[in-house]
Every structure is written in C-alpha cells, then in structure tokens.
Amino acid sequence: MKAIIIEDEPLSVAELRTTLAEVAPQIEVVATAASVAEAAKVITGVSHDLIFMDIHLEDGSGFDIFERTDITVPVIFITAYDSYALKAFENKGIDYLLKPFGRDDLQRAIDKLGLLSGGGSPSAEPDGPTLVSPVYQERFLVHMGARMKSVTTAEIAYFMADGKYLHLVTHDGKDYIVDRTLTEVGEKLPPNLFFRINRRFIIAFDSIREMIRYSGSRIKVVLNPPLAEGEEAFVSTDRAQDFRQWLNR
Hints:
By secondary structure, this protein is an alpha/beta fold. Helices cover about 25% and strands about 35% of the residues. Strands 2-1-3-6-7 form a five-stranded parallel beta sheet, with helices on both faces.
C-alpha cells in the first residue's frame, strides 16, 4: 500500500515514517510534500492509496488542496488543532489525529481502512486492504421554485460555480441550480466522462466544441451549450497535463 505524507515540519514527517514502519510496515511512503502547491503536484503525479495530511501548511490550509486537485483516496488528517474535525470528515477523512499522537492512535486510524473495505486490519495484511470501488451518481435532483426535476448524468454538459451558486447546464441548454459545492459534485461524477478544468468548471467530454492552445500551457475550452457573453473556460495550468492525458486515454 502506497502513502503520501503532506506535512511542513520535517521532524513530524520523520516521526510519522518511524511510527508507520512499526505499526504498518506494509505501507510504503512514496512521496512527501510540505506545501499546498507541492502537494497538488505530488497527488496528481505519484500513484498512491492513502494520504496523511496536516491541515496547517507553509502556504495555506490542507483543505486548499481539495480545490487544486481531485483526491480520490482516504485521508488521515494529522493536526495540532481540534477545531477542524467536522470539515476533515467532510473531505475524505477517515480519521483525525491530534498532535502529539501515540502509536496506538495511529494503529486505530490505519485499522479503519480495513473496516471501510469490509476486510480485516491493514496492519495484519501484508498486501493492505482492498479499497471499495467508488459508486458514481446517475442522477441529480434539481429544484425550480416549487417544482423538482431529476437530471441524468448523461444530460449534463457542465457544472459552473458562480459565487455562492452552482449551475448545472444540460446539453439542451437548460440551466439549474444545484445545492452542492463543485468539489462535492466532482466526487460523484465518473472521471472518464467529466473533468474539473479549474476552480469554477467541471465539464463533460461531450460538451467540448473546440479547444484553443495558448502560451504557458493554457488551454481555452469552447463549450456547447455556449457560455454567457463575457464568460470563458480555461484549463488551469496545474491541471493542463492531466487534462491532456484525460483527452488521450
């Protein structure tokens, strides 16, 4: 089982490595990151099954990473603060360890991986747990005043965040408000059909009418149905490489 450690204190990284080697030697630490920017690159570039994440990093919050890249594996949060527990469990968190934590605390957190997959403790299984395959949403319930409608995933062209509102736009041009965040929606969509190109847009492959390459690895995506006048959709530079791979799979 492969793990990434996101922590800006070298001593804490070393202590976690040592404790992991004692508690669960089958977990291999394949990469570390000390900042939000570095973590986003590592998560997208290194194969992994688990993340250990500190919340306070040198350039921001660990939660900012969820806005920079898609996280699809379980996360064990490790922090000196107890005020983020609820938010941690809303963001892939399977446990929340307060510093300083002990060997038994880490053991219990890792054992939860086995419970989630319906198996035994990962610390007792050399090959680690078999994680449950994600189940993607087939329909989204939207509201139009007092009326309700269920929109199938196949009907969706793209999602667009606009301030506190999230718009669901269908291939036939209908626009609905969805009572969720873009991150929450992204976790429910099949990644072979949808891609989050930046902080505002998740697009379906079938909604792409044209793509224009700009300097600095920027890519403009022309969508169908078209965006409102003055609106444009660009692939953020940190997602450009993944976007190209998504198009070429």
